[in-house]
Amino acid sequence: MKNLLIGLTSALAVLGPQTIVADDAPVPTQIVDVMNKIYGVHAGFRANHAKGVVVEGSFKASPEAAALSRAVLFAGATIPITVRFSDSGGLPTVPDGSNGASPHGMAIKFHQPGGADTDMVINSLKFFPVANGEEFRDLLQAIADSPADAPKPTKFEQFVAAHPSVPKAFATTSTPDSFADETYYGIDAFVLVNKAGQKQAVRYVMQPEHAVHLPAAAAAKKPADFLVDELPARVAKHAVVFHLKAQLAAATDQTKDPTQPWPADRKLVELGTLTLDKTVPDSLAAQKKLLFLPGQITDGIELSDDPLVAARNAAYAVSFSRRQ
Q1: Residue closest to 185 by CA, chosen among 127, 240, 117, 250
Q2: Cis preceding-peptide flag for 153 (omega within 30 of 0)
Q3: What is the spatial distance between Cα 13 and Cα 15, in angstroms, rounded to a whole number?
């Protein structure tokens, strides 16, 4: 909990005197509005995960993937991909090693034959702090209403007391020594459908070759841009490899609440290998044009009853329209 409060300090410092959100706006719009209140508006940048870096590569599915899903990206062909790694928050200058930069994100765009794209948006949280878009808006509003001089207990402290999943979720994150050495989780459940029509609820897990994390004190001493600078340098020297896996839900596992992880003993099936081997000459310009949508799926992948996917989709679209 202490680390979560520290991570919010830089955001609270930029709060303006007005933190009211229009009640008649759609919830996704309210989410972006509050983020803009907390972090400020930075032209051309995302409302959240503003700081990042883009690289390119390919995805090659495993034979096991085709047994789970008839999706084109799991058929076995080599699929070009564009990947953006990012820090949390709406500050484009957040230090990579600070608590405010966690959780870190990984967004993948699979460029399928024929021109269609499928997206996957995952991050280093093992599960989400709240269950739906309304609760996420309320969490952000509680943060916005809790500046340093706010009376105790603050709105944020009251929210956390009523939602113990908030500190539990943020306690699962830390700073990696590289974006390439982090494990990323799909907090939302999706449903894979195979050629026979059989369905399997899954959550994605993206595992690096080696996961390496830094103690908080060591991370704080790193240069402000060490993560966004290190990844392109690494990719220029040799390929970075990740393994995409699916955690399979049991018949009794719920799929609608992203604050509730499935038991750790649920089976993991390898879906394929991501190979990142191309740098992008002007990553900043490239990422401003990219829109990754968690719900942009394809035949063979279906939405579950998790309401957070629709809220994320709509909020990302609002943020994208504003930065254009």
Answers
A1: 127
A2: yes
A3: 6
Kindly report, residue by residue over 161-219, the tens digit of the pLDDT.
Answer: 999 999 999 999 999 999 999 999 999 999 999 999 999 999 999 999 999 999 999 99
| CATH assignment at residue 28 | 2.40.180.10
Closest CA to 309 of 299, 294, 292: 294
Residues making up the chain, counted from first to last: 324
Q: Nearest to residue 61, comparing CAs of 219, 176, 194? A: 194
Q: 10 pLDDT exceeds 50?
A: no
The total number of structural domains in the chain stands at 1
Beta strand 190-193 pairing with 175-176: unpaired
Residue reference for tokens 């990984």: 106
Residue 124 three-state SS: coil
The 3-class secondary structure across 194-239, one letter per residue, is: CCCCCEEEEEEEEEECCCCEECHHHHHCCCCCHHHHHHHHHHHHCC
CB burial of residue 221 (10 Å; 0-12, 13-18, 19+): exposed
| C-alpha span between 110 and 53 (Å, rounded) | 17
> What is the extent of the structural domain holding 285?
2-323
Amino acid at 312: R
